[in-house]
TrEMBL record:
InterPro entries: Formyl_transf_N, Formyl_transf_N_sf, GART. This is Phosphoribosylglycinamide formyltransferase. Pathway: Purine metabolism; IMP biosynthesis via de novo pathway; N(2)-formyl-N(1)-(5-phospho-D-ribosyl)glycinamide from N(1)-(5-phospho-D-ribosyl)glycinamide (10-formyl THF route): step 1/1. The lineage of its organism: Bacteria, Bacillati, Bacillota, Clostridia, Eubacteriales. Residues 3-184 form the Formyl transferase N-terminal domain.
Length: 203
């Protein structure tokens, strides 16, 4: 059975989309654990409702050993780490041990509106301020460059003149909830090939 760890920092609607995709048999995998960066996040309630093991790993407690602690919890136990609204940056050994085995969902069309400090509503605020007419979301592989790994899937949404960051976020999240489970399905079915640093989907 293909096993995943889902890492979260907030409400966990993306986590929920994975739980729903598993329950409806759209993807054949098991969420082995949910790791969160704070104790009081709603995403943990979603995990507990489905009897998924939960762990809190935060920078305050683990400092420089933060990423190593996550590696300790996941190594040998999961095939893929899914960053589903996880707002801390993974560094060091975990990136080697899980090379091409960590994915992240980002709420913009990478390489626009991404990189250090760009997360959550800040992304949508920057998108609206810029005046672009389209935004979207991206699932990409994680490497040492923030939001810089190979792009796997993207979806586009329109940006309306009257949008605020919350209305745009809602529209983008609907697409996130489609492409994140789809990305897990592709990886679990071994349908990705890496060519020249790019991810090719095998039909
Ligand atoms: C999502 O919009 C996700 O793309 C974003 O945080 C939100 C989490 O929502 N992630 C980033 O900004 C990462 N740079 P959720 O907790 O409801 O899934």
């Amino acid at each position: 059975m293909f096993k995943i760890a889902v890492l979260i920092s907030g409400g966990g609607t993306n986590l929920q989309s994975i739980i729903d995709a598993i329950e409806s048999k759209q993807i054949n995998c098991k969420i082995e654990m949910v790791i969160g960066s704070r104790e009081d996040i709603y995403g943990f309630e979603r995990a507990k409702k489905h009897n998924i093991d939960t762990f809190v790993v935060n920078k305050k407690t683990y400092g420089e050993k933060f990423s190593d602690k996550i590696l300790e919890l996941t190594k040998g136990k999961v095939n893929l780490i899914v960053l589903a609204g996880f707002l801390s940056i993974l560094e060091g050994k975990i990136l080697e041990e899980f090379n091409n085995k960590i994915i992240n969902i980002h709420p913009s069309l990478i390489p626009s509106f991404c990189g250090p400090g760009m997360y959550g509503l800040k992304v949508h605020e920057a998108v609206i301020k810029s005046g672009v007419k389209f935004s979207g979301c991206t699932v990409h592989f994680v490497n040492s460059e923030v939001d810089g790994g190979a792009i796997l899937l993207q979806e586009v949404v329109p940006v309306y003149f009257d949008d605020d960051s919350k209305t745009l976020q809602k529209r983008v999240l609907e697409k996130e909830h489609i492409i994140l489970p789809k990305a897990i399905k592709l990886i679990s079915e071994n349908k990705i090939e890496f060519i020249d640093g790019k991810a090719k989907i095998i039909k």
